[in-house]
Amino acid sequence: MHPGWKIAALAVLGMFALGSLVAGAPYLESTLPGGLPFGNALAAVGLCAIAACGVATARRGVMRHVAFVALFASAAWLPVSIALAGNLTLVFSGARGDAWIAWSAGVAVLSIGALALAMLQRLVACVWPRHTATSSRG
């Protein structure tokens, strides 16, 4: 089965999460069982969806490994953020807030960058198939 529907579903999920966070949707402040704000969970799911879309798009080789690193970092974003904050609402004080901003920005850049590079890799493979036909497995 062609993975196109998976890529589309992951892209839609990532765009929904990003759009909700940028727009500041009111449902982001609702609390999930256990005390975790829905916005924090949606941010984590959105980062993972973007990175997983990069994994699904990337061909085998170095780019696929980079995409998996982005997916791992995205999956670790929420637990690391909670550990840095010391609370589920991700309220920071002092230098930990600066560290969290750097961590969050790095994960976001890595996830979006891995997806962009995977898409570029696929585009190059379509435009110049003879130059990228080193493996028939990808």
From TrEMBL:
The keyword Transmembrane helix applies. The chain crosses the membrane at residues 40-58, 65-88, 100-120. Keywords: Membrane, Transmembrane, Transmembrane helix. This is SPW repeat-containing protein. It comes from Lysobacter auxotrophicus.
